[in-house]
Automatic annotation (TrEMBL):
Main subcellular location of this protein, as a coarse class: cytoplasm
Family matches, as Pfam families: DNA_binding_1, Methyltransf_1N
Origin species: Denitromonas halophila
This protein's UniProt keywords: Cytoplasm, DNA damage, DNA repair, Methyltransferase, Transferase
HAMAP family: OGT
Record flagged with keyword Protein transport: no
Methylated-DNA-[protein]-cysteine S-methyltransferase DNA binding domain boundaries: 72-151
Any further remark recorded for this protein: This enzyme catalyzes only one turnover and therefore is not strictly catalytic. According to one definition, an enzyme is a biocatalyst that acts repeatedly and over many reaction cycles.
Domain Methylguanine DNA methyltransferase ribonuclease-like positions: 10-68
Stated role: Involved in the cellular defense against the biological effects of O6-methylguanine (O6-MeG) and O4-methylthymine (O4-MeT) in DNA. Repairs the methylated nucleobase in DNA by stoichiometrically transferring the methyl group to a cysteine residue in the enzyme. This is a suicide reaction: the enzyme is irreversibly inactivated.
Listed name of the protein: Methylated-DNA--protein-cysteine methyltransferase
Compartments reported by the entry: Cytoplasm
Amino acid sequence: MNTPHYGLRFDTSLGVCQVRACDAGLLRVCFDEAACDLPANALCHEAARQVGAYLGGELSVFDLPLAPQGTPFQQAVWSALLALPYGATTHYGALAASLGRPTAARAIGAAVGKNPIWLIIPCHRVIGRDGSLTGYAGGLPRKRALLDLEAAHATA
């Protein structure tokens, strides 16, 4: 397991964000007000720069090494999330079907909820089958803001 060796806490337009990293890549990106007592490295600073550019509507694809920790099933779900285009949304059932597990929508939902690298692994792009907003660890107002941001800047 890769333990965080580096960290950075920084302000964004949606609140305080934190990144945690190891030598292999990013371990965690989340909205978190807690203090960060880890030293920052170049990857942490680059992640903060890219998050700021994304939230400013200037970046649609992140270019950062990722090292999320999870089960093989969670890793597969997170990889599927990474394949969702900027500005697009899906629902748990469609995500389950895309992974060849059409009856596993609840398990997919649990894996999405365990995503440690918010924004970059875009779990905010998963909505209810009926188009409603569903859970987001960063809160539904942030999820709405992220979806609105992407809708406003997505190219056809």
